[in-house]
Amino acid sequence: MADIDYYFSTLSPFTYLAGTRLEENAARHGARVTYKPMDIMTLFARTGGVALPDRHPARLAYRLQELRRGSKKTGLPITERPMFFPTNPAPSSYAIITAQKAGGGNLGGLVHGLLSAVWAEEKNIAESDVIRAVLEANGFDPDLADKGMLTAAEEYARNLEDAVSANVFGSPFYIVDGAETFWGHDRLDDLDLHLAGKL
User: Fold this and answer.
1) 3-state helix, strand, coil in the chain (%, to 5)
2) What is the pTM of this model?
3) How many CB atoms lie within 10 A of CB 67?
């Protein structure tokens, strides 16, 4: 059974555009996914990335084109400049970490639901009510939004350190069996081929 470490930010539009294709790939090949939400802004600072406000206008314009094209290809609606972006990603990340430990719900659905809240529904995922609603919609106890905060905060920080050590530099980022790396929602077909032993 392959193990996939899935590094991502709950604010990343490209992670939103991945939809639930990672989970579909993993189910098809019997792979196990470990969800590792991380602080993307600190990751950028430590791995040579450039924060959105500091990017050249040419890069910003290209990003918007990629978002439009990605939305059309995936069929996922997207708001290119959502009302609550950026916001504090920590509360939603803590909820994912706590839900992963608790089990019993649809973790992939939770991650996608939080991303969808930002990029398609104009909701603020730093707000407890928003997080609670997405937890409940995916079969988790909504009270997980307010539980295990200290432990989740420690794991969130550890995920960042793990990401830097594993040469992660963006979101979404997938690492199979600690070795084969894939960056971006547009590499999920390659990940699928790799899991099938064809790439």
Assistant:
1) 55, 10, 35
2) 0.96
3) 19
DSSP state, 86?
S
Structure tokens at 152: 């989740």
**What tokens appear for 57 in the block?**
């206008």
- Distance (Å, rounded) from C-alpha 38 to C-alpha 44? 11
Count of alpha carbons within 13 angstroms of residue 81, beta-carbon side: 4
Kindly indicate the confidence band of residue 138, based on its pLDDT and cuts at 50, 70 and 90.
very high
Q: What is the pLDDT of residues 39-53, one digit of tens each?
A: 999 999 999 999 999
Long-range pairs, 69-78, Cβ under 8 A, ≥24: 70/13, 70/14, 70/17, 70/185, 70/186, 71/17, 74/17, 74/19, 74/185, 76/16, 76/17, 76/19, 76/116, 76/120, 77/120, 78/13, 78/16, 78/17, 78/119, 78/120
Set out the domains of the chain in order of their start, with CATH numbers. 3-195 (3.40.30.10)
